[in-house]
Amino acid sequence: MGAQRTQGSPSNLRQLPAVSRLLQHERVRKAIAAHGRELVVHCVREVLEQMRDRLRRGEAMPVDLESVAYEVVRTVERWRTSTLRYAINATGVVLHTGLGRAVLAEAARRAVSEVAQAHSMLEIDRETGERGDRIEHVRELLCRLTGAEDATVVNNNAGAVLLAVTVLAQGREVIISRGQLVEIGGAFRMPDIIAQSGARLVEVGTTNRTRLQDYERAITPDTALLLRCHPSNFRIVGFTEEVSARELASLAHRYSLPVLDDVGSGCLVATEQFGLEHEPTLQESVQAGCDVVTCSGDKLLGGPQAGIVLGRKEIVQRIRRHPLHRALRVDKMTLAALEATLRLYLNPQEAIREIPVLRTLAMSAEQIQRRARRLRRRLQAVLPTEKIVVHLRAGMSAVGGGSLPGQQLPTTLVCLRPLQMGAQQLARALRWQQPAVFTRIEQDEVVIDPRTLLEAEVGALVQAVACAIDQCLGGEVSHA
Ligand SMILES: *Cc1c(COP(=O)(O)O)cnc(C)c1O
Prior knowledge:
It contains 20 helices and 18 strands. Strand 11, helix 12 and strand 12 form a beta-alpha-beta unit. The longest helix is centred in the N-terminal third of the chain and has 20 residues. It is globular and about 80 Å long. The chain starts with a strand and ends in a 7-residue tail after the last helix. It binds pyridoxal-5'-phosphate. The site of pyridoxal-5'-phosphate has 14 residues, from helix 8 and strand 11.
């Protein structure tokens, strides 16, 4: 192809092909046919501009027509390829925020696809043909499943808390325990949310111990709300004490104040059945008398990203009339997925079978071990033993996503110890495969946790590992 490496110098700037010549190059013409003239012309200019800059800085690079045309086509293709795409979660973190938290149930995926493909009855009354309310698709279901009087849904739980605190306490005081002033994933910090809502934060108790009297002593005529927040991503152990939802609600009601309980993960089932500690459920929080309860849709609930608000009718009505409710409105795809997910919960056995988050938590140690053995066998069949050691080891999966902190589930890890490169290098190569594979690194090995693999992913994973090693080291790896 005659790609001469040219020393960077001002004279080389003149050797760069002209825009018109590039546009006539065969590969560029094909790109125009496939992707349209506008984008390709833009990329030609962009590539030439970047090359000029680099040449001026004295960098050496091929500037012949063929090489520049190749760069143009690559740039065009990069623009036309999605980056938000499917990836294999081999990390063992069930609710991995970086990998999109909850995987949706098949019924939810079908529902999303249906409302995306055509018109839907999102906000319309079938009987009268008049404008309806989008929340109606899930309102009754949420009440039925949790025992709440009323319910609504917004974009996410951070929005739900912001909205509820704004409606209940703007310009007044909110009392919260120092042990619950949490930060969840960087941008959600309880003190910031309260400040943003225009309420004043009143901290009570200490980091490790807060008693009912601490709350009671802090109540003034200016108090508008008692706030509870489930510390969902850390644990305080040892000499600790927090006030239960029930105690707090009865104190609040003696002073005619509401309690807002941010439970975080939106659990509707008993987590003990998965060998985990008890995670507070939505039903319990409602039962305990909390006036408003909020949670995420895409944590333990196993649905789409959403902020669910449950509570007393009068308060939920006020929340629904607030302009922030409109600003934080959920879209039809979210609602479709949420509705379908909630309908599965009407039959709890079906929910555990069908909702991937619950199914993944419910996997038995034997099931995982069988998967691990099968994976090891298939990896060993294609990977050269002089390049990599594959072995099994007992380990732990994590729930993740700010749910059940510090609690782990026993698993069998498939460990890859590359012999001619570092574990980091292999992990990176895996992330650039098609599909991308995300793993963990422990003890200088790349570890794969079969728990979070989906049924059909074993083949693709084996292929990805083989290709990654091939790319890093070259040589023969049989692509079975
Ligand atoms: C995760 C979490 C949030 C934030 O929820 P998003 O749906 O991610 O906005 C808020 N509060 C608690 C207690 C949480 O666990």
